[in-house]
TrEMBL record:
One of its GO terms (molecular function) is dephospho-CoA kinase activity. Pfam families: CoaE. One of its GO terms (biological process) is coenzyme A biosynthetic process. It comes from Auxenochlorella protothecoides. The chain crosses the membrane at residues 132-152. This is Dephospho-CoA kinase.
Length: 153
């Protein structure tokens, strides 16, 4: 089974994006939900890029937004001042660094429907690649690849 990593900065829309992937039938494991379950045990849940867990995922998705949009969403969502929002954003790994590590970057400076459409588009790409991955690593697929390689010798 392929594990796809999804990340994003605070208030970039990654939860909305993940919810749309769920509606398309993709199983989504939300580390925030897991962290809430285990926080009583003082277990720290890793962040995809910050901890290096991205090495175990492919492809790596990033939902990003411009700094102004990210700040406005955070202020509206959490009722923060501009200064408090800036402190929260600056406490995270910069999106520019995450962009360099991501395979697919979804720019989310639009509305929710645009983000949902982006999720459907990416979901379609993942679905097509999933079938290719399943076929390629099937016994028939591996046999055909082995035969092709053998014929090149």
């Amino acid at each position: 089974m392929k594990i796809v990593g999804l990340s994003g900065g605070i208030a970039t829309g990654k939860s909305t994006f993940a919810a749309e992937l769920r509606t398309l039938g993709f199983p989504v494991i939300d580390s925030d939900d897991i962290a809430k379950l285990v926080v009583k045990k003082i277990v720290d849940m890793p962040l995809l890029f910050e901890t290096g867990f991205y090495h175990f995922t492919s492809p790596r998705l990033l939902v990003a937004a411009g700094e102004g949009m990210q700040r406005r969403r955070l202020m509206a969502r959490d009722g923060l001042s501009e200064e408090a929002a800036d402190v929260r954003v600056s406490s995270q790994m910069p999106l520019s660094a995450k962009r360099r590590l991501a395979d697919i970057v979804v720019e989310n400076d639009g509305d929710v429907e645009e983000l949902r459409q982006s999720a459907r588009t990416v979901g379609g790409l993942l679905q097509r690649h999933r079938w290719l991955h399943i076929w390629f690593f099937s016994p028939l697929g591996l046999g055909l690849v082995a035969a092709a390689l053998f014929s090149l010798r």
